[in-house]
């Protein structure tokens, strides 16, 4: 099985996905999803992880973060994944791998591309048929975007608004809900692998810049052009 790639580019946004071992439903209980969220908060508190969105499902997670350098993302993922697995295995008296391989990270362009990825994450449990609206699922960033808590907030709403090209974070809930309503009205709940299966997604200039910064060669990689975006796929073993 190929190893999931991990790159580092300070200032860029990454969409991270991490699945439970053999896609088992090891996060099916609310208490385990709560613990994952707790350790996400701790990663923000300890390392300064810049979180833009997230969702915890029954067998995998989605996490949208901005790379601030100093290996913050890698250290944060090690903390979150390690502590979640350790607590679960101890409680269940279980041995063995909890997560499937390493996490997978895709570089995301900003503005409209970031908005689309943001909503794709929000709609995860709607696609799964578990809920009819993102707000019905507790363990996700949707609630913080719409109504930030006074204490123990996880999302950096200021950074998110800035990356989305909005005037300020007070505009965020309105635009966010409009995007959600549009996605629900279209009833297009198909899984779109492009958001989590490649090296980068966005404009042609963004994708080419990522390739150059990472020092990866185009040769052998599959560059796909869609109607309004470009995608560079990861090499497959």
Would you report the number of β strands?
Answer: 7
Question: Which descriptor suits the 3D outline?
Answer: globular
Gyration radius from CA atoms, angstroms: 17 Å
Strand content: 15-25%
Order of helices and strands: EHEEHEHHHHHEHEE
> What is the number of domains?
1
Percent of residues in helical segments?
25-40%
Class of secondary structure makeup? alpha+beta
Q: Tell me the strand order in the biggest sheet.
A: 2-3-1-4-5-7-6
Sheet bearing the most strands, described? 7 strands, mixed
Terminal CA distance reads: 8 Å
Quote the average pLDDT: 89
The CATH superfamily bears the name Transposase IS200-like
Low-confidence stretches: none
